[in-house]
């Protein structure tokens, strides 16, 4: 709130932008009546956080909130110094390179190595981080909430239980919303191991040397040490994340092989200029269900035996997804939206959305959040010989194809361009799996 002596008006100003970036200052409300401006602020606060201003210290789970309340206390700025910042460069240093790149992309958004060589002369990454995020102004309440989130997160990593990565990602995102992280334009690393929790707790303890934080710090250090002695490399968060997945992946290492060249051509030839994207191939990975684990589509495949009213027509089609969603897909497979799940497709109702054009699928990858980096899944899809074809939106499409005795297994959307070079599953790839992950860079043209 600002009061202008010359005009006699109160102004509600708000800065909007990611912590550490150049934010934009906006005028939200202006009036000579302080109550009017205050009411505008309270309304804005509730819309953003789903929390009433007078109840901002109450911690109750709320769905749909866009932002979280983080209290700053400027009285601390001259009396408290920022301690050692979390350094993730050494995490996962020993993991196999074949797994490392894709797992880093999924969990961290990009490799965690230091980008000092790209910095202006005389400016280090560490100094920029210190100057960009208001760590010194975080109130003790904000630090305490960050600590409680880490305490909750540590329970997901206990070795006697399977890891729920969706819960780990959500808890890590909540922590990052409370304790700001800034390192250039990169996404913050996911807090996904005892090592990472230890780094964050050590940082919080430097902001507020509370006994409770120190106790958890010692406990996490002990758990991490036991994990290292017991599991060796499984203590590495990337490898542990990979070990918990139902699907494994292996990179195609020979670009001259028949399989690699065919997949590369299928990617580039199915890229259409109408979507205004230029695709640069980075890596191709085979995806497979790990030995001894249940195939998430096994029940459906077995249930298809016998007479099939829809007929069988299996095609290789593309599915685009943001990098941070790939971890869940490799764990559970592609899922039709369940009650409470994020609504990702609405044009034809509930379903798994696939495209014959790689560029069409790439538009759903949110590549702009990862410096152009994106992943596509090449999927074996039984779309059925009889397909319901529509050039318009069908919000109840899942009901149409889900009716008992329906001759349709899928809906084929008729866009501005038709299918160009669909690949049948019988495509000869020397017995290799007929689906996988394509990692690439998207450039808007």
- Which CATH class of the largest domain? Alpha Beta
The rounded distance between the terminal residues' Cα atoms is: 43 Å
How many strands appear in the DSSP assignment?
11
Number of helices: 13
**CATH architecture field of the largest domain:** Alpha-Beta Complex
N-to-C SSE string, H for helix and E for strand? EEEHHHHHHHHEHEHEHHEEHEEE
Average pLDDT for all residues:
76
The strands making up the biggest β-sheet line up spatially as: 4-5-11-7-6-10
Gross morphology is globular
From the alpha carbons, calculate the radius of gyration and give it in angstroms. Answer: 25 Å
User: Helicity level, as a percent range?
Assistant: 25-40%
Percent strand equals 15-25%
What fold name stands as the CATH topology of the largest domain? Phosphoenolpyruvate Carboxykinase, domain 3
Whole-number count of domains: 3
Which residue ranges are poorly predicted, with pLDDT under 50 across at least 5 consecutive positions?
111-131, 428-434
Main beta sheet strand tally, sense and closure: 6 strands, antiparallel
Helix-strand makeup class: alpha+beta
Topology:
Blueprint: E1 2-4, E2 9-16, E3 24-31, H1 34-49, H2 97-108, H3 125-132, H4 140-156, H5 165-178, H6 194-207, H7 211-231, H8 237-244, E4 247-251, H9 258-269, E5 277-289, H10 298-303, E6 314-321, H11 323-332, H12 358-362, E7 373-382, E8 388-390, H13 397-402, E9 411-413, E10 423-424, E11 436-444
Parallel strand pairs: 8-9
Antiparallel strand pairs: 1-2, 2-3, 4-5, 5-11, 6-7, 6-10, 7-11
Helix pairs in contact: 2-8, 2-11, 4-5, 4-6, 6-7
